[in-house]
Design a protein that fits this description.
By secondary structure, the protein is of the alpha/beta class. Helices cover 19% and strands 31% of the residues. The protein starts with a helix and ends in a 6-residue tail after the last strand. The site of adenosine monophosphate (AMP) has 19 residues, from helix 3.
Length: 408
């Protein structure tokens, strides 16, 4: 058996960053930047007011209080979006709205809550003394020309998109998404709601895998169900690698007489069949066919999902420029015994995780732990990595992978 870490390193070794592409901001969320962006302009582009109020010369407000107000004539009103070219002479005020440019001559804003305008709006009593710069946002207060905005290699967030739009960018250069084919293999598999004949089961894995691809930021390609037939699998994989950046398959990588995926991958390219020291998801075939990574994941439904999570997801994210799997691993407190037998493997238990009042992550089993029992995987929010031995006793801690779902 090969350790989880070694198997993952083996897979990552052959998965390289994809090419760059220019995308519209609207399509850029979650992509990794392939350029460093610096600001070509000041943000904000002009000094403006942070408050609704009155633009004044600060010195004119000296000594103003609620009981000794300073009265100033109001010479104009400027709204956000106006050019703001009315000058404020000493001894006058301009009524001003948040975001409007500071009028020439004014050096401070008194917020409306500290003013008492006259009924006809022609004058205002200022009830507080303010310093120059009060409630004024100077030009370039957020970004100066040449300031770094986003570094290369950064996963774009909604905030980044706002910042990029704020400097006039409509597009950004990113690492492109991986187009990844997903196929199920197995003579027993039936699609959708077709009636089952004896011995048949419905294809679950392709649907989970396509969804996991989407979650990982890939563009999934549905390659359907392929029979346990060496020629059919050969053709399907050859076709897939011709149009995909990577391929994930389920089934056919174990020790059975009809497990052709590993045979085909071995024949078509460089591949390695691994017995990984984990449970579930021990068998994994990984290979390059025409330079395209192919992940031969095991067929048991939980195994295929766990194998995707541990091997395909980090590899595909690496191809898309991410440096990590994007998963958080924390030491969690077991709220119940998590028993097991020693077998040289790490057991990945499907768990429900939640933060307790003690601020720590707590886990308990999400249900039946057989590798064919997808129900517990469906509700699991975490995988507890129970080390080899007799298991974890309630109250002990266990390293736990959070699966990126809302925690209960
Ligand atoms: P295999 O890895 O091909 O030996 O399959 C292991 C087990 O998983 C068998 O019980 C298969 O019937 C089952 N299985 C394989 N592929 C799927 C699938 N796509 N959906 C549901 N179960 C599957
Ligand atoms: Mg099979």
């Amino acid at each position: 058996m090969i350790s989880l870490g070694d198997a993952r390193a083996r897979v990552l070794r052959d998965c390289h960053r994809l090419t760059d592409v220019q995308v519209a901001l609207a399509d850029a969320l979650g992509h990794v930047t392939a350029e460093e962006v610096v600001s070509p302009e000041q943000v904000p582009p002009f000094a403006n007011t942070a408050m609704d109020g009155f633009a004044v010369v600060a010195a004119d407000t000296a000594g103003a209080t609620d009981s000794t107000p300073v009265t100033l004539p109001v010479v104009a009103t400027i709204a956000a979006g106006s050019a703001g070219d009315v000058a404020v002479a000493s001894g006058t005020a301009v009524r001003i709205m948040t975001g409007a440019p500071m009028p020439p001559g004014a050096d401070a804003v008194v917020m409306v809550e500290q003013c008492r305008p006259s009924a006809d709006g022609s004058s205002v009593e200022v009830l507080a003394s303010v310093e120059p710069g009060n409630h004024v946002r100077p030009a370039g207060d957020d970004l100066e020309v040449g300031d770094p905005v986003v570094a290369a290699g950064v996963e774009l967030t909604p905030g980044h998109l706002g910042v990029l739009a704020g400097i006039g960018r409509t597009e950004v250069r990113v690492v492109r998404r991986a187009r990844v084919g997903a196929m199920s293999t197995g003579d027993e598999l039936v699609e959708g709601d077709q009636p089952l004949r004896p011995g048949q089961i419905r294809d679950a894995n392709r649907h989970s895998l396509i969804a996991m691809l989407r979650e990982a930021g890939c563009e999934p390609v549905d390659l359907g169900i392929v029979a346990d037939d060496e020629a059919a699998i050969t053709t399907a994989i050859q076709d897939a690698v011709a149009s995909c950046d990577a391929v994930v398959t389920s089934g056919g990588v174990s020790m059975g007489d009809f497990d052709y995926v590993k045979v085909v991958l071995d024949r078509l390219g460089e591949s390695e069949w691994m017995q990984v020291a984990i449970r579930p998801a021990k068998p994994l075939t990984f290979g390059l066919v025409d330079g395209v990574p192919v992940f031969g994941l095991p067929g048991n439904p939980v195994s295929s999902m766990v194998s995707f999570e541990l091997f395909a997801r980090p590899a595909l994210r690496r191809m898309m420029g991410h440096e990590t799997s994007g998963r958080t691993i924390l030491d969690a407190v077991a709220d119940e015994d998590l028993p097991r037998r020693p077998d040289g493997k790490i057991h990945l238990l499907r768990c429900l995780a939640a933060f307790g009042d003690d601020g720590r992550l707590h886990v308990r089993s999400a249900g039946s732990q057989g590798s064919h029992q997808l129900s517990a995987m469906a509700v699991a929010t975490a995988l507890a990595m129970v080390p080899d031995g007799d298991g974890v006793v309630a109250g002990d801690t266990v390293p736990t992978i959070l699966l990126g779902r809302s925690l209960g």
